[in-house]
Amino acid sequence: MDLELHVWRQKNGQDTGKMVQYQAKNVSPDSSFLEMMDQVNEELVGKGEDPIAFDHDCREGICGTCSMVINGKAHGGQKGTTTCQLHMRKFKNGDKIYIEPWRAKGFPVLKDLVVNRGAFDRIIAAGGFVSVNTGGVPDANAIPVPKEKADVAMDAAECIACGACVAACKNASAMLFVAAKVSHLANLPQGQPERMQRVLNMVEQMDAEGFGNCTNYFECEAACPKSISVKFIAQMNRDYLKASLTHEKAVAKE
Hints:
Largest sheet: 5 strands, mixed
Number of helices: 8
Strand content: 5-15%
């Protein structure tokens, strides 16, 4: 296939940036989207030009670093698919493809398609650690966990922190990400001792990072490559309300 690419190029965080047109020639429909980008970059390097900067790591849909908005959709808009899992057979010969970075205050652009997602790391760090002494790796049945709870916790733990939920939300809300991380431990016995303080700290850090509020459009769930459900936002909101009341009472008592 021959494709016309329109790629966001930005030298650094201070540069205004602009869309630049490139031609991708003789692209195999069996190649992944990132392999197509590699092909374009090889041609640019061969010409002595600056290659397009983009994040990537595992290329197996696990790490979440391949953050791109493709034709207005986070990760290209194919359900349950990261950019690295998106194949060129989803496009047609002669297509125009527009490629941009995540757009959010909490994700400042570093260069081209690369954004700084350190805000997510700080939110997770705000959650702290569990105080339970886990010791070595226990047997699977050493800590009794109801299967229903274990399944829900695993569903939340599927979040790969890619940031597609933020990029898809008109408010640049990180509620789905934070809710998944909060709910993962909230549904396990190891996460109970710090459960209330954890949700308060992580939501507070989320707000401090400049992410917007949730207005229930559910674009986050639609864009999530791991199909994380918005039900976790409801669970986090319940925990946050309870924690806010508990925290206020504890402070008043002191």
